[in-house]
Amino acid sequence: MSDAKPFDLADLAAIVSARAADDPDRSYTAKLIRRGIGKCAQKLGEEAVETAIAAVQENREDVKKEAADLLYHLLVVLEASQVPLQAVLEELAARTHQSGLAEKAARAE
């Protein structure tokens, strides 16, 4: 049994952040971020659609792979937008104090 810490989104966010500062000729992440937020958002949307299609097709292997791509591209968009993953997690934590239905109803007011 390994004592290694499991890989998590914080680890991936740190990798994305480090690679964003790399040479775009050596890093896909750096190249994508330098192409601008529009391109980053486009890639995020593409991966979201591909994940949804895999889910509808009930293809668990493709859902796993596309979800990995989706999470990566979400973190790229966060990096390009200068929104730390921790801020998103804090937003999610704040929303857990009420049901999703109650939260949605409060926004509609």
Write up this protein:
The chain is mostly helical. It has a domain at 9-84: Helix Hairpins (Orthogonal Bundle). It is built from 6 helices and no strands. The chain has helices spanning 9-20, 28-34, 37-56, 60-80, 85-95, 100-108. Helix 1 crosses helix 4 and helix 3 packs antiparallel against helix 4 (60-80). The protein is globular, with a radius of gyration of 16 Å. The mean pLDDT is 93.
Keywords:
mainly alpha; Helix Hairpins; 6 helices
| β-sheet strand percentage | under 5%
CATH class of the domain at 9-84: Mainly Alpha
Count of β-strands: 0
Mean pLDDT: 93
Number of distinct helices: 6
- Give the radius of gyration: 16 Å
Looking at the overall shape, the CATH architecture of the domain at 9-84 is Orthogonal Bundle
Largest sheet, strands/sense/barrel: none
Provide the helix percentage: over 70%
> Poorly predicted ranges (pLDDT <50, ≥5 residues)?
none
Order of helices and strands: HHHHHH
Termini separation (Å)? 52 Å
The third-level CATH topology of the domain at 9-84 is: Helix Hairpins
